[in-house]
């Protein structure tokens, strides 16, 4: 309790909190895009529930990992060496998650480009199987993004209360943004391809990070923001043309 009071009175703690909240929200974008695309594949009645469960699992997983900070720090310690490069458990988790994202995004891009070639939904034939499989895949990616998120938090501040508040704030933002983002993606088919491209890039970045080739996150998010801006301009141009045609 005394530590919390000291943190409340410390201006540097507030700066660390704001910085960490922003970082956690930015890192949560990847997680949110995946959840939005995956849940949009479910029957409409199940989508919001799946999003809430997925984001709730992300919160539970992050808080659980915060409870084992000492163990999380050990994940960065090398466990074996291959071709002269040391690999840690964190690296292996990032590589596995990156490969899964690349596979999932590639499969969905193929499905979008050639839908006739796919007789069943990406997560199964039946509605209940689809829901369970979707939650399973969300849980898998929640683990990958949670490990990355918590290791980032540990690297930015040594204070556990600040980490907990930042994680709860970031996941709350994810929860509020989940439905608007998913609905926006569902209403605009071209955004789906753009979002899948983002997932492909994020997957490749996770693999590169796991292999020891660090790509600054700023470059990734700047590219995503620029691509999104171009697509917004394209959408505005399409709507203007449609209005002009309907006016004639």
From TrEMBL:
<keyword id="KW-1133">Transmembrane helix</keyword>
<comment type="similarity">
    <text>Belongs to the TerC family.</text>
</comment>
<feature type="transmembrane region" description="Helical">
    <location>
        <begin position="12"/>
        <end position="34"/>
    </location>
</feature>
<keyword id="KW-0812">Transmembrane</keyword>
<keyword id="KW-0472">Membrane</keyword>
<feature type="transmembrane region" description="Helical">
    <location>
        <begin position="190"/>
        <end position="213"/>
    </location>
</feature>
<dbReference type="GO" id="GO:0016020">
    <property type="term" value="C:membrane"/>
</dbReference>
<dbReference type="InterPro" id="IPR005496">
    <property type="entry name" value="Integral_membrane_TerC"/>
</dbReference>
<feature type="transmembrane region" description="Helical">
    <location>
        <begin position="159"/>
        <end position="178"/>
    </location>
</feature>
<feature type="transmembrane region" description="Helical">
    <location>
        <begin position="55"/>
        <end position="75"/>
    </location>
</feature>
<feature type="transmembrane region" description="Helical">
    <location>
        <begin position="219"/>
        <end position="237"/>
    </location>
</feature>
<dbReference type="Pfam" id="PF03741">
    <property type="entry name" value="TerC"/>
</dbReference>
<protein>
    <recommendedName>
        <fullName>TerC family protein</fullName>
    </recommendedName>
</protein>
